[in-house]
Amino acid sequence: MNNVIELDVIDLALALGIIGVAIALSLWQKLGLETQFFFGAGRSLLQLLVVGYVLDLVFALHNWFAVLIVILFMLSVAAITARNRIDQQRPGLLPIVWLSLIASTGLTVAYVIAAIVQPPVWYEPQYLIPLTGMLLGNAMNGASLAGDRLINAIKQNHQEIETHLCLGATPKQAIFTYQKEAIRTGLIPTLNTMMVVGLVTLPGMFTGQVLAGANPLNAASYQILILFAIALTNLIATFLITESLYRRFFNQKLQLII
């Protein structure tokens, strides 16, 4: 059960044939996706190989500082990506996204590591880096969906919001409906996954552990833990990003600024 079939360079070359087939189909159907497939495959290959070598070094060092450097790098890339998906031009958005992601992911990871997994040391890279990466990636997607939805809703409904303000509503009351819908939008992918996991899809962590030779029941237990942690992380991230974002649409006199 623990025998892992390792992939060598030839196997990776054969894997590139899969992308070759995709490019050929795109050419045949004149989809115009050949360039995206080619560069996407190249970037994926390069990035994953570099990550593999870097993590191999970090695992060998087994040093808390090296682990934190990797996590901070992942966090910064996720924050920049989420900011760009929400609004590249809005000033002061990057710190909001960065803090929202570090707070939501950090709180959940700390609970999972300290109360559930309990590795020999808290910075055990085998657990801390993969857990942080999975939660951070999902929080990034949830935050970007929620933030983009809230900004668009405020811009499209600014007259209704101003009417509420004129009638004595606070900024929070005036945008509450739009904030709620933005949070729901950010959580839709997570909730949809939870509804069909195991029936329609087999998540990456579950299949990865099974392929690596882990007991399927143990792999399922870890996947349950990850799904629940993702749900909480996304909820915190979407709340924090929308709570911080809406405030930037109002000045000190509580007037709406578009």
* Rg over CA atoms: 22 Å
Question: How many DSSP H or I helices?
Answer: 9
| Bulk shape | globular
Q: Ranges with pLDDT <50 over ≥5 residues?
A: none
Largest β-sheet summary:
none
| Beta-strand content estimate | under 5%
Q: Average pLDDT across residues? A: 90
According to DSSP, the number of beta strands is 0
Integer tally of domains: 2
Q: Which structural class matches the secondary elements?
A: mainly alpha
Order of helices and strands: HHHHHHHHH
Distance between the termini: 59 Å
Measured as a percent range, the helix fraction is over 70%
The oligomeric status of these chains comes to single chain
In terms of topology, how is this protein built?
Elements: H1 9-28, H2 34-61, H3 64-86, H4 93-117, H5 125-156, H6 158-166, H7 171-196, H8 204-211, H9 216-247
Helix pairs in contact: 1-2, 3-4, 3-5, 4-5, 4-9, 5-7, 5-9, 6-7, 7-9, 8-9
Feature tags:
globular, mainly alpha, 258 residues, 2 domains
Describe this structure in words.
The chain is mainly α and 258 residues long. It has two domains: 1-61, no CATH class; 64-247, no CATH class. It is built from nine helices and no strands. It has helices at 9-28, 34-61, 64-86, 93-117, 125-156, 158-166, 171-196, 204-211, 216-247. It is globular, with a radius of gyration of 22 Å.
Summarize the structure.
With 258 residues, the protein is mostly helical.
